[in-house]
Amino acid sequence: MANLILIIASQILILAAVVSAGNGDDFAKVIDRKLLGLRKEKLTFFRVYWHDIQSGSNPTSVALRPPVTNSSFFGAVFVIDNRLTTEVSINSTLVGQAQGVYAAVGLHDSSALMVMNFAFKTGKYNGSTISILGRNEVLTKVREMPVIGGSGLFRFARGYVEARTMWFDQKTGDATVEYSCYVLHY
Length: 186
Fold this sequence. Notes:
Helix content is 11%, strand content 46%. The chain contains one helix and nine strands; from the N terminus they run αβββββββββ. β6 (129-137) and β7 (143-151) form a beta hairpin. It is extended, with a radius of gyration of 25 Å.
């Protein structure tokens, strides 16, 4: 009789384990977007100037790894905390920082992989970010890179940016780049 009770109890435990394990589809569920405050999508345009300073006593762009050879940019990796301003002048109104890394990835061209966040520090967008990840063919007049996300007012962001070099100093590596940003968000 004790053996029968043990067998029945073990079968009940096995059945309970199988039923509770399910098929793994219960880890995700569809929710109403209104629970997250998501309403109608908006398109926001803004233009900022990205100041990449490698020279002087207070650089905002630092090489983590130098190029593989002196004749190529390939292999160089930089970490950045660049000013974002409202005008070409580095002393114009600061609206945020571009924080991230870029790496020279073109063996036969001057392209870079850009991985950065634009972290806004003023006005309505204070505390919000957009995330940019893409290929930047540096010597092309207009380069397009995707916006792959964001936070704060740019939560669920997507879109693209257009980059245009305003000036570049070959001797120091310093540059100012205009970023025209087209961002869809809720």
